[in-house]
């Protein structure tokens, strides 16, 4: 790791390019896409994750989305050196659809030459190795893409950060035959494109899409050359700070692999001369801030205090930065794209861009594209950037919620027979087991070891995390009521149907319930310890005839009111004209009388 790194840094570029061959695929039809939420936080966790389900019945995993990796892998039940991660290890023996990938001429094989294996080593000195298997992969209830068979790695050994991280494994989005993107493109179920949108400094999470989307107006594209490098590169030519170009030779951003975009890396890294120029230019623009020590004495972070805690006001203290591409298009960065919060000093921030040692590669990690929709349009060899609020991406794109994919033929719900008593529903089992009920909402109680006065201003943030964990829109999460006992808070939440629907699909409700039942919610430590006390499903609240037809009634009343006012006004005008005396136009008396008109009796 670079000495400027924070301890949560991830640096997931393989040391050696993968052996998989590259190929361009042009599809005439790509009917589906997989829309998936992103979880966690770039600076708190060092990465973003998405949820993937593998096997029959499905086993859930939290995987780091990584454009620098080409293999998707999860810890295997046979692993003897795997860390303690977020979810249980994958159990191939429990999946009726799992098949090992047998040894062949296109893969590396185990010592017995029976099964294909994989090995990956990363720049921050972590590694993963295991055997390759094939099974059904599902993408969640926001995806219109049906479950697909795919090859993935079943880990038998992991070291370094991969061993100690909370996330289960890696979702490889890079270029290569084992990449999940390449496999889906090969099946002709998605177009050769995917998009990532990372949340900002205030909120983590975000969204991703496997498959194509319509580029929004204003999206800026730059060429990406798949022949030059196995990584996703862009043609960066200049950097502007406060509107002034850094005095650098454009070739400085073209060394080795060029300028690489890597979602699995936390921060950004510039060649030595570029970093020195960037640091100097930014510091010249800081007039009211004071340089302070970084949060960790082991690192020489460059930090400043006095900017305040309001992220929307950071641009008043820190200068804008533009990245200019070879086609003269530019990506404008706000301070949250090159700063991270000081963890020990309120209102202080540190540089999130560092010197890349003596390596000539320019590496742009996730911090640079926070609150930016990044489209990896591989079919057209280009990458697009669009500044937006990633926590509200679908609203910003005017995209309605995706319908659930067709049933995979497997039962994705958990049996209530093994529920803990605390989480047992208060309705009879036959109420939700029929598969034909109309579910209006799913409610649950959450107990947190935090005083409500401290929790209250953070309720929107808590709702945001709950929405991420349950794979629903934040607008569906409602706080119903709360109570306090000592320093603890008890909150009743409800998950309502998406949009204006009266009911939610049974599959969606059962997916939410399975996560509540399995205590699968993971919240940041800042919310203290918590537990789910009870969940329930309820029909849609019955509406009276007035509630059902209130809009028609209101419109009718408004029409009657407007007509009444119009008639009264017309009558008053008519009376006024009848009362006033008539004089010839232009007479002196008339002009005098008009000036001295008295109110009508």
UniProtKB/TrEMBL annotation:
Per the UniProt entry, what are the Gene Ontology biological process annotations, in alphabetical order?
proteolysis
Q: Where is the active site?
A: 66, 262
Q: Which domain of life is it from?
A: Eukaryota
Q: Transmembrane ranges?
A: 550-574
Q: Molecular function terms in GO for this entry? A: aspartic-type endopeptidase activity
Pfam families from the xrefs? TAXi_C, TAXi_N
Record flagged with keyword Transmembrane helix: yes
Q: Which family does it belong to?
A: Belongs to the peptidase A1 family.
Protein name in the entry:
Peptidase A1 domain-containing protein
Naturally occurring in which organism (per UniProt): Anisodus tanguticus
């Amino acid at each position: 790791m670079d000495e400027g790194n924070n301890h949560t840094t991830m640096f997931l570029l393989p040391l050696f390019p993968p052996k998989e061959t590259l190929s361009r695929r042009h599809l005439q039809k790509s009917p589906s896409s997989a829309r998936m939420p992103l979880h966690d936080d770039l600076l708190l966790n060092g990465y973003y994750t998405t949820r993937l389900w593998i096997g029959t019945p499905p086993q859930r995993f939290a995987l780091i989305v990584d454009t620098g990796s080409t293999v998707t892998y999860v810890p295997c039940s046979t692993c003897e050196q795997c860390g303690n991660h977020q979810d249980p290890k994958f159990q191939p023996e429990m999946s009726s659809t799992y098949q090992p990938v047998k040894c062949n001429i296109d893969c590396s094989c185990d010592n017995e030459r029976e099964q294909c294996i994989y090995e990956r080593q990363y720049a921050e000195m972590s590694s993963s190795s295991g055997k390759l298997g094939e099974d059904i992969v599902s993408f969640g209830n926001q995806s219109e893409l049906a479950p697909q068979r795919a090859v993935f790695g079943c880990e038998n050994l992991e070291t370094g950060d991969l061993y100690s991280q909370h996330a289960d494994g890696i979702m490889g989005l890079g270029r290569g035959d084992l990449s999940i993107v390449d496999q889906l493109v090969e099946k002709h179920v998605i177009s050769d494109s995917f998009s990532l949108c990372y949340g900002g400094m205030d909120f983590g999470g975000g969204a991703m899409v496997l498959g194509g989307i319509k580029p929004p107006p204003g999206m800026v594209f730059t060429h990406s050359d798949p022949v030059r490098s196995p990584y996703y590169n862009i043609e960066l030519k200049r950097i502007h700070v406060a509107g002034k170009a850094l005095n650098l030779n454009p070739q400085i951003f073209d060394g080795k692999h060029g300028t690489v975009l890597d979602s699995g890396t936390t921060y950004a890294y510039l060649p030595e001369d570029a970093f020195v120029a960037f640091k100097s230019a930014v510091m010249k623009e800081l007039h009211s801030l004071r340089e302070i020590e970084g949060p960790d004495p082991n690192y020489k972070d460059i930090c400043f205090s006095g900017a305040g805690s309001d992220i929307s006001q950071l641009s008043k203290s820190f200068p804008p930065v533009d990245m200019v591409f070879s086609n003269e298009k530019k990506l404008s960065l706000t301070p949250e794209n090159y700063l991270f919060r000081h963890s020990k000093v309120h209102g202080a921030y540190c540089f999130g861009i560092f010197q890349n040692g003596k390596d000539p590669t320019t590496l742009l990690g996730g911090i640079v594209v926070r609150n930016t929709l990044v489209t990896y349009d591989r079919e057209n060899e280009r990458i697009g950037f669009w500044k937006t609020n990633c926590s509200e991406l679908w609203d910003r794109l005017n995209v309605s919620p995706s319908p659930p994919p067709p049933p995979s033929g497997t039962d994705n719900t958990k049996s209530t027979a093994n529920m803990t008593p605390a989480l047992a529903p208060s309705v009879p089992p036959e109420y939700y087991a029929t598969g034909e009920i109309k579910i209006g909402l799913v409610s649950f109680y959450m107990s947190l070891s935090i005083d409500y006065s401290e929790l209250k201003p953070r309720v929107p943030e808590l709702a945001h995390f709950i929405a991420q964990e349950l794979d629903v829109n934040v607008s569906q999460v409602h706080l119903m009521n709360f109570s306090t006992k000592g320093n603890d808070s008890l909150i009743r939440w409800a998950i309502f149907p998406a949009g204006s629907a009266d009911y939610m699909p049974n599959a969606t409700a059962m997916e939410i319930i399975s996560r509540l039942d399995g205590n699968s919610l993971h919240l940041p430590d800042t919310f203290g310890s918590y537990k789910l006390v009870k969940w329930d499903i309820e029909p849609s609240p019955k509406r009276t005839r007035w509630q059902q037809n209130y809009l028609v009634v209101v419109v009718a009343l408004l029409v009657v009111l407007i007509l009444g006012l119009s008639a009264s006004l017309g009558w008053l005008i008519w009376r006024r004209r009848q009362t006033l005396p008539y004089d010839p136009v232009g007479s002196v008396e008339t002009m005098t009388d008009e000036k001295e008109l008295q109110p009508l009796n």
